[in-house]
## 1
Amino acid sequence: MCIRDRLQSFGGSIKAQKRVYDTLTRGVQLIKRKILSILIFLKKHKWAFGIIFLIIVFAYGYNLTNFSLGVDEERDIVRSVGSMENVKELLYREGRYGLYLFRMLETLDGSFTVFVEEFLSVIFIFGNIVVWAKSLDVVTEHKIRESALVAFGGMMATLPYVNAEIMCYSIMNAGVYFSIMLMSTALYLVTTATQTKRKSRLIIAVILIISGLFCSEAHNAWFLAGTVFIVLTWVIANPSVQWKQCISRVLYYAFTFIIAFAGYMVIQKVVGTNGYVGEYFHWQDDTPLNLIKNIFSWIWTMLTNEGLPGAVYLLVGLFVFCGFLVVYVLSQNVSRACMTLLLSVCLFLTPFSLCFISGSRMPY
């Protein structure tokens, strides 16, 4: 190779490095701007978020001040696999590499820590609500009311799913709440990207989604349901939105999620894990019609089972939403009424999306 060719090659290498550096710099600046924007939003609605934080403290005060182990926790903390198994070993063996890294960064040796898990969980629950509220503020064009913030934040903080399924499982509650916050932040970035058309936000969103999936594959449902909820809120808050705009916005979220999920699958193959949701696949066990009937039967049980903590609130919430939906739809033209109804049906079904993917009850 002559000197001229070497110089050109060296110059091209420098340009490539500069592009990478510029991209990373823009990403860091974007993150700083978004954090500042959220802090300003938090300060603007400090009374509403103050009430939400008090609701969280009241809801989880017992968890913060009383230490106890459930049956599953005793089994998993003191499980023997040839010898005593550390909590981090359990997470690693299940392919939850995101939670494994979180545990290692949290306690260095991955050991179980009393109080710290619950304290971090409360912080992440609050952070998740703030990010969600900011997303809704964006799609409503900054017209969200204080009362709406308190109602939304209070309900999200005390969801039966949150209280009964995650907070009570101290081994991984902080890590799971952190990963949920990552998915919510990804939704927020895509929401702002639909307005600014900046690809850097989508790239960061893809990274956050992949990170969240490596904590829990069930977070697929969180992103899908979140997408529908944000788009439905946007449609209701903006009377001028039509089908073309709605589909275009949904495609933004879908494109981001597909890219992220494809990246997640590739990384899975590289690190040599198949995740854990595959264990719940049951489409081969019966006819599709019977399996779908079983899924809807299970969903109905989730809403009506008196023995399931909080089930009655889910059912009451569904009836209240349906009442609001009827009143709203009757005030719209046929096109917008159909669009709202379709999004509402999707909003009801997407939390159970993994059931339809696996052909069985909800995998954890």
## 2
Amino acid sequence: MKLKSLVFNAMLSMGFRIERYKNNWQLDTGSNSFQPDPNIGMDIKNFFSNIDPFYENIKDLPKELQIGAWKIQLENRRKNQVTVYKRGNSADIAELHENMFYNELITGLWAYFYFDKITKSGIADFSDDFKDYDRIYPDHPYLLTDNPIKCWGHRNSSVENNKLIKNSDIAHAIEALMVTNCTNLISNDSCTVLEIGSGMGGLAERLYHSKKISKLILFDIPLNLVTAYYYLKRGLGEKSNILMASTREEAIKGLTSKEVEICLLPTCFFPCLSNEMEIDIVSNFYSFSEMYEDTVNYYLNNLPESVRIICQANSNTAVLKNDNHTTEVSCDKFDYPKGFVEVFSSIQMPLKSCKSRYKSKILYKN
């Protein structure tokens, strides 16, 4: 109890607070604590009318893009999520996503703890990582956001007593620093960033505000992609042109249109990329470690020729994951495209979140 109090007091003294979460998305129907957007819920409903959550309706999908390593776990862990989509009620879909930090959309995806099993050591690790970040980046670049989703704390730094950070924020802030620093190596006035593994959209949300980045292309499996879409539409919808493609035609439109600022694509449309498309930077944080080796190499060796920089952080230790059915591929052993040389590497922060086994790497094309 003493340790817990010390950690909470330390965080409070920095102007931040920690919230507890329950693994239950079904809130009291009389609650006014959040305002889901049914229009975004309808977009997600329409998306799944064309794309099965596990690509069961996609023909001739390359084996490397099939949802393999994590399918069984996803089916078990995301049962409620899939059930909501199948019911097809846009209001329910919006409620699920609006309250996603309390439910299975986010629960268990981060390394400190599961939100229904918060541990003292997990809170201590989170506090240690924040203190490291605070010492190295005292101005807290990219840490806070103003996404209006209530359960995310409406993290607007200008609002007193409203500086809520989540355990994903430190990682997203550091990732954003890595990618935006890479844009300084691109001679163009503006550049396009391809993110393989959108996650919940936290990195894209931050990169959108970079003056040097004119377009973001996000790929992920459907269950993650729609989470990122809801999060980004709620936070940036009125200010940005965001497209989520559920057909090949929409995918090509999103990739080639100069008006689309953020293009979200399910990984089944990765073959829509072509050498005629101008993409400057490719980023991947942690998700290559969750794939089979042939899938990682498929992505890396089917990038457009215009790509100049690969910015990533992945495990460099071969540990067993997925109930001991999958061995992580060490990032030093990835089959990087010819012409790319490693120009930077380091242990990835935040250290405790990454269990000190993730390695950040930047590769530059000669």
## 3
Amino acid sequence: MLEVFLPLLYLITPFLLLIFIIIIIPTNKKKSYTTNKKNNTDTDKKFEEIYSNMLKQLDLKHLEELKKNAIIENNKNAKEIKLMVCSIVGAFLIMLILSFFSIVFFTIASVFVFAVIIVVIAMPYINKKYNRENKKSDIELYVEQYKNIIIPEFLNQFKEKINYMPNEKIDKTIYNEAEFEKYDTYYSEDVMKMDLNNGFNVIMSDLKTCNTTTDDNGHTHYHELFKGIFTIIEMPKTFNEILYLKKDKKYKRKNIIPKIEKIKLDSTDFENYFDIYSTNSLITMQLLTSDIMEFFIDFQNSTGIDFELTLKNSRIYIRFFSGNIFEMPNLTESFLDKAKLKKYYEILNFTLEFTYKITNLLNNTEY
């Protein structure tokens, strides 16, 4: 038995020591903490007003205290991990030293090592169960503030009534109706709903789709296809034609190519941004006026956010390639991620403006 285990023990010991050195010995590099500072020239007055009003309503001192506690707990968790590594590496070293004496010492050392590993791994979970049975961790409390306080307060600054439901999701069957792309996995959360005065209803959600592959070892790998904001605009009456604005030139990963006519417009500039497909070219030209096309291009150029659009039946579907908007900022960053809030403001503002623009066009279009 000793002849079997000793070569293996000698082989893995250097790797354990290397892990010990990497994790335990700190580096002298100082972390750089960046803040999202932008000049007024980079943000319009309306956003600055909304952001300023939000700050007045928030208890910043309380949020800073929560963040401080979360950082303390995070550092404590890191120390526990280091302790686990130290204990396991130390136990293996003891077993290695005792193995030089006799098989009896080796057997005793083996039992000791496995006992140490079990105790070290189990202790954090036992501690959490008995000491925090009915209490949320400081990190959990801090994360909750972003979705339960900061985001709702930000949305409260808009004149439109926006209902924010962080635990709700949009069903994938609704996303599939837009025919954006084929995918294997689907994830949605952070739903917002608005009932507008013009008869339109707007639903928005953080959304992510992935393609999956399996390697020769049976491991599953996830390849991101889309991550951003998915928007549904419900119109007061049904639209009998179908219109797609797609980014086929840029996003070719499993995109669904419509089996309908590809439309050529007079504006070659607009066609550099979108591939247009429609069941009715005349109505498409009535909807894609010079004002609408300029509105779309200006939004994309000013924000750098790509988007695709589908108009069919009584809904307009838009997906914005914005990344995850509602993800909690890292503990090393400011809990008020102004750049991320600005990005969401731009998407929300674009959506609202578009509904008002399209209302007049649909009312004046025969379909």
## 4
Amino acid sequence: MVTLEQAMNRRFTYSMLIAAMIAALTSGTVLADSIRNSAGINYAGRVRGLSPEGVVIDVSGSARTFAYAEIAKLAVDEAPDLGKAEDLLNSGEAAEAAKLYAKVRDKGGSAWLKHFVDARLVRSYDESKQFYRAVKAMISLCAMQSPLASQVGQPSPLAKGSADNQSSLKEIEQALATVPAGAFADRLKSLRINILMVEGNPAEILGLVEEQLKSPDVSVRKQARIKHFQILLDLNRVDDAGRSLEQAGDDLDNSERQPLMYYIEGRRLYAKAEAARKAAEGKPDQPADERDYLRAALKFMRLPVLYSLAQKDLAAESLVWAARAMQKAGAPAQEVGTVLDEAVRKFPNTRGSDMAHKMMEDMGGGS
């Protein structure tokens, strides 16, 4: 027979067990979300949403904000597949990650989660060469006026003539009719220019880029300044490109300005050597000084050596121009080919690698 005291003890024990279980479950709920930053440090807590600076998470009662670029992995209890998608993306399986991100998005959830997942879709689709889908995700971010729209990188257009490029241009044009004028529309205009730089005539794009130089969004102005510089060089307006760089002001910091300076100095030396060669035509007793070609090659070479990670597109093109200068200076074809091969291997899927492929084909060594 159970005494009253035993019954009370049992009830107390059951109550304690239930309380402990509830406390454990509650604790697990509160601390189920986590952010691992780019340094590998994990912060457990509860994601509260977005601020203009990034994702806000409560950690031990204190709010911490992580910029999108700082977040290596985000896991939340309301979307278990998100953490799995993050692991896939970090392991280089972008296509599979994109499928899981899309699954998370389709299930719905907190408003902030939709923003974050769209940002990850831009990246995962871009890395898996699904440009049209990446553009659609970027349009979604801009349509929501998400603070992450300015923090996620722009997707890269595919090769000239790609159906994805053409379809993306149509989607962007339709979106610009509904997205309010301002920073978010400017992001889409910047993306449109990226596509047109692959597909169109540089002279026709110049006006669109100059309009972007007036954007209130410093990240848009920065990209516009670099494109302005590049288009002027494509049009062989080297001095105008130099002036554009001088007018950049605070839009470009020194780490961004310096590689452009190396590039334009190389182009100026190359142009000087070309002018000297042309002036010497028909004058066998006054041969052109080829040393400016070599000086140009050395200047171009500095960019990929010092800025290969930060300026991949420009670094690839610098190698092509270095190869051109070496060829004009009479370097052996094998040495020229080595430089071009470096552009292809080290900087794949860039305009410079395409230029290098074309030059190798012209030399008879294309793959």
